[in-house]
Design a protein that fits this description.
mainly alpha; 2 domains; 5 helices; flat
Length: about 90
């Protein structure tokens, strides 16, 4: 289970945030931010959602992407993470 696109989406959000600070002094800055954030979130969801719904596998998608990932990362306690990283 590899989800590298999550980092791309995070990077895009940070770029949008930086652009927001540059647009802040312009009158259309807030409107630009809202429309840009909406377009960004839509572009992140668009490739996955229609395919999962059309193929009727949204439940499996949610399980493997959200539920399983949450259980997988909770195997090691946060307090033991440093030791595991040093050992690995």
């Amino acid at each position: 289970m590899k989800q590298h696109a999550a980092f791309i989406a995070l990077w895009a959000g940070l770029v949008l945030l930086a652009a927001c600070f540059r647009q802040q002094d312009r009158p259309a800055g807030r409107r630009w931010l809202v429309s840009s954030c909406s377009a960004s979130r839509f572009s992140c969801i668009w490739p996955v959602l229609p395919v999962a719904l059309a193929c009727r596998v949204f439940g499996k998608f949610w399980f493997w992407t959200i539920d399983y990932a949450r259980e997988y990362v909770s195997i090691i306690r946060l307090a033991d993470l440093r030791e595991q990283l040093l050992w690995s």
